[in-house]
Amino acid sequence: MDDVILMSHGGGGRRTQQLLRDIILPPLANPILDQMDDAASLTLAGADLAVTTDSYVIRPLFFPGGDIGRLCVCGTINDLAMQGAVPRYLTLGLILEEGLPLADLRRIVASIAATAAEAGVQVVAGDTKVVERGAGNGLFINTAGFGVRRPGVNTHIANARPGDAVLITGSLGDHGIAVLSQREGIAFATQLASDVAPLNGLVGALLETVPGIHVLRDPTRGGVAAALNDMARAAGVGIRLDETALPIRPEVYGACNLLGLDPLAVANEGKALVVCAAADEATALAALRAHPLGRDVRRIGTVLSAPRGQVLLHTRLGGERLVDLPLGDDLPRIC
Amino acid sequence: MDDVILMSHGGGGRRTQQLLRDIILPPLANPILDQMDDAASLTLAGADLAVTTDSYVIRPLFFPGGDIGRLCVCGTINDLAMQGAVPRYLTLGLILEEGLPLADLRRIVASIAATAAEAGVQVVAGDTKVVERGAGNGLFINTAGFGVRRPGVNTHIANARPGDAVLITGSLGDHGIAVLSQREGIAFATQLASDVAPLNGLVGALLETVPGIHVLRDPTRGGVAAALNDMARAAGVGIRLDETALPIRPEVYGACNLLGLDPLAVANEGKALVVCAAADEATALAALRAHPLGRDVRRIGTVLSAPRGQVLLHTRLGGERLVDLPLGDDLPRIC
After folding, report:
1. Could you tell me if A99 and A198 lie in one domain?
2. Of B128, B149, B170, which residue is a domain's last?
């Protein structure tokens, strides 16, 4: 019974990493795939490209602040943007469930088109399949994205260096909690909306000002906890977060308390983690703050030389606790 | 009740085309997508690329002659090859259903790796999602593929010209009937295997000898009937097939008779339709015959100036019948 796929294998945490390391990656290994970054960097016919793919299985299909259509464009574009690339083209694979209302499909395709236009990318190839009622989700979407890498930019997670500043471009956990509240019918005092947004404009403005940014990463599945744990391991550094600096909305904080979730492990879909040299911090903050999606940027932590491979939270009360890589079974089907 | 997705929307025939034309394509329209070829042709950072995507929802996951892993590599590579491109890289999106045996996943990933090696391509980016038991198929796969276009080669379906020869590289309908027989438990005298195979080597050998091939197309969903109807419409030509020339195995013919299927509308996953000038026919046949996957190539028809947009079958008995675009509800989940 242990030798089957579990929901936690899809959570973006420890179980996902085990599945990749033990089963999926070894037969497929090659130098490009082994980079294990948000997007693959490769050169094809002389062009320096970034390539990525994501499947979207979120439920419900429509949620406060967005829908699966907006999400499937933003998620893939953001992976390219975090690679320091300029996203240009998307492919679109639709798996439709028999019985899906055509009106829902129309709304979702319109949302894909509007979000692609907002981000300045085009859908250039697609595929549509249908599965029997009961064999699908209403709709699963896969997008692959590709773009052109900026010369001289390298934002791989292994580039974090002791002394670097860790910035976040806005509040944490909005996407995961907005989707969960819609799904589970949990009411909050305020209507919380997902932060789903294309980050290529924000990142482009940042890299024009500070091309030497060390690391960019969008904390999606597994949240900031998973992204920073990946970074600490890949770079062989420690990372210390300051709890009083973490931008968490009261309704996210409240929902997490209620549900026993750690806001650091909840998915974001319109935020970037930015790691830069301390000397670049002020310039980076100013460049990000000047963009509508970066108005609330702030520093939340520091890269340290130790403890290597670990993320620590300096708490409000003055103590320290380990921020572990989430196991992955807290928040299924959030993207 | 009419305003929902039906299984026939996924069949690759008339209903699929309606869905694309009425709902999916209009909001997304752009010059590259509007080519509507097997793969998109585009130029990015100076590189002439071909890009395509397909989702695979076949059941069962393992079938005589292949599995979903071999299929998801071949289907996408073949779309690039038909574009006259050299396939180089794939992305891989897995949607796993809770409860899928890890042993099955291992076999499928091994099959992906072996087929990619056979075809000389690499998986460079991937994504893994998990959905609850009952919300999936065991496994859905999406692949997107990237390759480099050969200079001077243009194999778009609109290039068919009156007088051209229509060739097929081997027997028709093997994939669809092999999968259907496995699924429905239909026994045949002989064990029929799917023809699923990567065609980039075969097509590469052909294009080196005859770079001026007019059209290449792999007759997958909707079979030869759908591919030739698309071609007749796009090129504004008629196409006449000779029934006595059609290479159909007795077990495929028998199964189609039993099930009320037209072998011309059944999917192939390792065959190419080749349209070339009559003057190039002998050279093309020789080049294809020299390759293991083209040994049984033969001419099956002729491109005519009329009736425009239609495909005719010159029957064994000397009559003619129209080969219509299939509606799309005969063979669900065959790829």
Report:
1. no
2. B149
A251 inside domain: yes
Instruction: Split chain B (335 residues) into runs of 10 and give each run's mean pLDDT.
Output: 86 90 96 90 96 96 96 98 97 96 97 98 96 88 98 96 98 95 73 95 98 97 95 97 97 90 96 98 98 98 97 96 85 84
Same domain, B140 and B161: no
The angle at the Cα of A141, spanning B129 to A68, to the nearest 5 degrees, equals 95
Q: What percent of chain A has a predicted confidence (pLDDT) above 90? A: 87
Measure the CA–CA gap between B252 and A38, rounded to whole angstroms: 46
Question: What's the mean per-residue pLDDT of chain A?
Answer: 94
Sort out which chain A residues have CB atoms less than 8 A from B123's CB and list them. 28, 30, 33
Per DSSP bridges, beta strands A238-242 and A311-314 are parallel
Give the domain range for residue A226: 157-322
Instruction: Output the pTM of the full model.
Output: 0.96
Does this complex have an ipTM over 0.90?
A: yes
> Residue A41 belongs to what H/E stretch?
strand A40-44
- How many separate domains does chain A show? 2
φ, ψ for residue A99, nearest 5 deg: 100, -10
Q: Are B55 and A112 in contact (CB < 8 Å)?
A: no
- Whether A140 sits inside 8 A of B140 (CB atoms) is yes
Helices (H), chain B: 14-19, 25-28, 68-82, 102-119, 174-184, 200-209, 223-235, 250-259, 281-289
Closest-CA distance, B328 to chain A, in angstroms, reads 11
State the pLDDT confidence band at A2, using cuts at 50, 70 and 90: low
Whether A175 is covered by a domain: the verdict is yes
Q: Tell me which of B149, B171, B193 is where a domain ends.
A: B149
Angle between helices B200-209 and B281-289 (to 10 degrees): 140
Pull the structure tokens for residue B36.
């509507």
| Nearest chain A residue to B79, by CA | A125
Instruction: Say how far apart CA A20 and CA B309 lie, in whole Å.
Output: 49
Among the partner residues B5, B97, B127, nearest to A53 by beta-carbon distance: B127
The fraction of chain A above a pLDDT of 70, given in percent, is: 98
Handedness of CA B180, B184, B188, B190 (dihedral sign): positive
Clarify whether residues B163 and B284 are in a common domain: yes
pLDDT digits (tens, 9 = 90+) for A219-268: 999 999 999 999 999 999 999 999 999 999 999 999 999 888 999 999 99
Rounded to an integer, what is the distance from CA B262 to the centroid of its chain? 16
Question: What tokens does A193 get?
Answer: 């909306």
Q: CB–CB of A128 and B39 under 8 A?
A: no
For an interface test with B, the pick among A18, A24, A109 (most B C-beta atoms closer than 10 Å) comes out as A24
CA B157-B159-B164 angle, 5° bins: 105
CA distance A318 to chain B (A): 38
For residue B214, the one-letter residue type is H
